[in-house]
């Protein structure tokens, strides 16, 4: 009798199995969590060293555009002003998103409203292929095709914000398109039927009803596109010209946060000011990536149609 | 008034057609440019000779191998972790603030610029853990870069398995973890395979995360030395390894090779062809695995 009682009261083999399974999956997810915390922690501490250890003024960093952290400037201190890179990063990001959005919306409307079956069949692979092309290949084509073109049309070296914008336009296009498609698909069919039954033309239906209803989703798509453009390193670095100067025109050589990081990180010594200043640039990138995430969350809260 | 609205309608739809055509033409131009300029540079010699850092006529043998080796190592490291994490999110996660926090963390990780991931890898793996520029550092950096996406595709594939299957497993008296491993996971495998192949394409073309982790040099290695601990072996994970994508970048920024653009266009074509194969095969293998596992063909997702 006691044996049976004991057996019934003790956890079964299945309970143990379940605990082990639960534990393993918990360890995996915990690993990812720790990883994210570690990235945030290490990049932040490394990035703040410029201000805490090297005593560079935060205001100078964000407001001045003279960047020569390895040499002493006129006032006897190295100059660490990242404004030129920050401005260029934002310029290429905004311009490419503004350029890409009309194309992305047209693609999305084509795939959902104008020719749903055929459009999907042709444009879905187009999007996937554009995503699939690696960024170095985009950069390489930019270098071989765009730069000579810009040079002949506008003169100068041919590198700068303009070619970078065009390269990024193609790179963010698939991101914005596929998310806009999701946003348009989330608009209930009744909205379309109601508009058409009131005598609206197809364009009136799309413009006055579907696009308005999908606006939060399309904004989210734009933000994701901008996040991708802001963080893109190699393709931009290959066409931007890599001179830390405030851009004077769309075709003057300049540098973004990412391009400066990729080209300089290997040329500086750990722990010195030129190196710490680069980590601060990485911190700015990280913070901006978080900001984009927060904006997406805020828009998501206002969105009418949840999945 | 009515005619006006119709005119605008025609104009607007015409504009949409035009914009869409431009995008399609851009893609055709991109692929055409890479394949037309690149295919003529690809030869058996190009694929099997070592690269050169000074003179013309270098090949891409080592870079191609390094890319493949890094890809395999990355998948070996990241797949088990993603499986565990995806299973947790799909099966165990309760609807509370901890789960929301974890999901946010994964979103943050997936939107981090790959150069930031690469620099984190440089700081932690290369400097702090003293792994130096090595295949191992590169594979771990790529794992960080790959984890959020693969986890999400595992989670989605598991969630698509009908609830009935789980109930059937549980009603047989199986434990929950046994049900997941024995019943749910086999049904989710086709989706997981598709996810793995698609992320392989991304990993294969990634360069920004590798510049400061796997390094920018491709030392001469012996392809007959199969001992992974021997320093000259091609399997040694502690040697620096420039991949194909990094090679293209390096040639075009710091390279002094006279035929840099020929080597890069050939290498770009190889890169694109491999990624095209990944993209095309992902669907094929997914459907094939589904047939094998269930004996039925896959329904199209609505």
Automatic annotation (TrEMBL), chain A:
Part of the binding-protein-dependent transport system for phosphate; probably responsible for the translocation of the substrate across the membrane. It comes from the Bacteria. One of its GO terms (cellular component) is plasma membrane. The keyword Cell division does not apply. Keywords: Cell membrane, Membrane, Phosphate transport, Transmembrane, Transmembrane helix, Transport. This is Phosphate transport system permease protein. The chain crosses the membrane at residues 20-43, 82-110, 122-149, 161-184, 205-227, 277-299. Residues 86-296 form the ABC transmembrane type-1 domain. Belongs to the binding-protein-dependent transport system permease family. CysTW subfamily. Its main location: membrane. InterPro entries: MetI-like, MetI-like_sf, Phosphate_PstC, Phosphate_Transport_Permease. It is a multi-pass membrane protein. One of its GO terms (molecular function) is phosphate transmembrane transporter activity. It comes from Fructilactobacillus fructivorans. GO terms for biological process: phosphate ion transport. It is found in: Cell membrane. Pfam families: BPD_transp_1. The gene is pstC.
């Amino acid at each position: 009798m006691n044996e049976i009682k004991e057996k019934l009261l003790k956890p079964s083999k299945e309970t143990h199995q379940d605990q082990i399974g639960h534990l393993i999956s918990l360890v995996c997810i915990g690993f990812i969590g720790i990883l994210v915390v570690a990235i945030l922690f290490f990049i932040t501490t490394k990035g703040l060293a410029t201000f805490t250890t090297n005593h560079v003024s935060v205001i100078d960093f964000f407001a001045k555009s003279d960047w020569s952290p390895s040499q002493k400037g006129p006032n006897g201190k190295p100059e660490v002003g990242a404004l030129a890179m920050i401005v260029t990063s934002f310029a290429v990001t905004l311009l490419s998103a503004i350029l890409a959005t009309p194309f992305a919306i047209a693609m999305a409307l084509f795939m959902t409203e104008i020719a749903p079956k055929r459009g999907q069949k042709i444009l879905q692979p187009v999007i996937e292929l554009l995503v699939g092309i690696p960024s170095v290949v985009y950069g390489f084509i930019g270098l071989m095709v765009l730069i000579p073109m810009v040079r002949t049309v506008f003169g100068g070296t041919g590198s700068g914000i303009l070619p970078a914008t065009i390269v990024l336009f193609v790179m963010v296009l698939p991101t914005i398109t596929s998310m806009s498609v999701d946003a348009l698909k989330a608009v209930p069919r009744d909205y379309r039927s109601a508009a058409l039954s009131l005598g609206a033309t197809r364009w009136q239906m799309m413009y006055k009803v579907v696009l308005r209803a999908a606006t939060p989703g399309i904004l989210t798509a734009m933000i994701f596109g901008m996040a991708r453009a802001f963080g893109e390193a190699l393709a931009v670095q290959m066409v931007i010209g890599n001179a830390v100067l405030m851009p004077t025109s769309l075709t003057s050589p300049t540098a973004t946060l990412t391009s400066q990081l990729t080209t300089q990180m290997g040329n500086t010594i750990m722990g010195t000011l030129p190196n710490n200043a680069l980590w601060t640039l990485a911190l700015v990138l990280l913070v901006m990536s978080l900001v984009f995430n927060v904006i997406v969350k805020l828009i998501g809260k206002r969105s009418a149609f949840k999945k | 008034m009515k005619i006006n609205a119709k005119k605008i309608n025609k104009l607007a739809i015409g504009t949409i057609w035009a914009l869409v055509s431009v995008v399609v033409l851009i893609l055709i131009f991109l692929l055409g440019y890479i394949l037309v300029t690149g295919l003529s540079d690809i030869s058996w010699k190009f694929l099997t000779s070592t690269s050169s850092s000074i003179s013309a006529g270098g090949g891409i043998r080592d870079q191609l191998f390094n890319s493949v080796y890094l890809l395999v190592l990355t998948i070996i490291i990241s797949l088990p972790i993603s499986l565990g994490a995806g299973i947790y999110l799909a099966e165990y996660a309760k609807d509370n603030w901890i789960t929301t926090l974890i999901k946010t963390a994964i979103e943050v990780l997936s939107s981090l610029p790959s150069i930031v991931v690469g620099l984190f890898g440089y700081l932690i793996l290369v400097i702090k853990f003293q792994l130096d520029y090595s295949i191992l550092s590169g594979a771990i950096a790529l794992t960080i870069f790959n984890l959020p996406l693969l986890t999400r595709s595992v989670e989605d594939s598991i969630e698509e398995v009908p609830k009935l299957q789980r109930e059937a497993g549980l009603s047989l008296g199986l434990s929950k973890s046994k049900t997941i491993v024995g019943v749910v996971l086999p049904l989710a495998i086709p989706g997981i395979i598709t996810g793995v192949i698609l992320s392989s394409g991304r990993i294969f073309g990634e360069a920004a995360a590798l510049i400061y982790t796997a390094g920018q040099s491709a030392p001469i290695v012996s392809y007959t030395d199969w001992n992974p601990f021997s320093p000259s072996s091609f399997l040694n994970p502690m040697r620096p390894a420039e991949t194909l994508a990094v090679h293209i970048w390096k040639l075009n920024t710091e390279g002094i090779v006279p035929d840099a653009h020929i080597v890069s266009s050939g290498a770009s074509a190889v890169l694109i062809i491999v990624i095209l194969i990944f993209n095309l095969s992902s669907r094929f293998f997914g459907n094939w695995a589904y047939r094998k596992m269930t004996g039925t063909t896959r329904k199209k997702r609505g």
